[in-house]
Structure formats: C-alpha cells, structure tokens
Amino acid sequence: MTQPFTIRRTVQFSETDMAGVMHFSNYLRWMEDAEHAFWRSLGLSVHDACRGEGGGLISWPRVAVNCQYSSPARFEDELELTVRPVKLGAKSLTFEIEFRRGAARVALGTTTAVCCRVEPGGAFQAIAIPDAIRRRLTPFVDAAPT
Known about the structure:
- The chain is α+β, with helices and mostly antiparallel strands.
- The protein is built from 2 helices and 9 strands; from the N terminus they run βαββββββββα.
- The longest helix has 18 residues, at 24-41.
C-alpha cells in the first residue's frame, strides 16, 4: 500500500492578517503548492507534455475547490499538508489536502481538476486521463482512507 504524500510548511508573516492568523486565501495557495509537489514526486507536472494520447500539452484546470477550517494557523506555525487523490474518474481527479499542526487538524480542503489538452490558441479540450498518468495515481487512490 502506498503512503500518503506529505509536505511541511511554516506560516510566513506575509501570509497572515493583522491578528497574526493565516489568511483564508493562503490555504488555497498552499493546497495548490502541495498538489504540485505531489505531481513532481511522481515525475509529472500539472502543465506537461501529453505522452501518447495524441500528443500536445495537457493541463489540469480546477472545476471545484473547497476548504473547511477547524482551527486558526498562526505566524510561524509549522503545518503538515497531506495530499490524497481520493477520486480518479475517467477525465477528472479529486484531491483531499489535510492541514495539521501536530495532532490537531487545522483545515481540510478538496480540489477537483479535469485533464485537458491545451489546444492552439489556449482553449481546453477535456480528455481521458492518459494511462501512464492513471497508473501512477492509482496506488495513491487505493491508499486513501474511506
């Protein structure tokens, strides 16, 4: 069974409000950073050449994002972010990103993205997730808690 992917981040002063609490919008930025680190750990990218499947460039535009906050993160808190792909559809992928400070959950977010070929002129065309990518993601989805 594959272990969940985890990174650590420290809350910077520039990420806080006047009370020293991490601003809610930064959770979304951290979710994206953690997701990108996960893709890199697989030797992939969210903006990469499509191997096979007609070639070209693929990207993963978001179609849904959610974050539920449980406890404030404050300046200089060290947080652990765990990324879990929890749903692997034909064309879409949903990640769950959990924020923890020690044993305490700070927040839980989800993002759903669709695998798209970037067409000339920048238009997106939804495509089936290429088999090479699906094979790398499947062990993580199988390891996700139910």
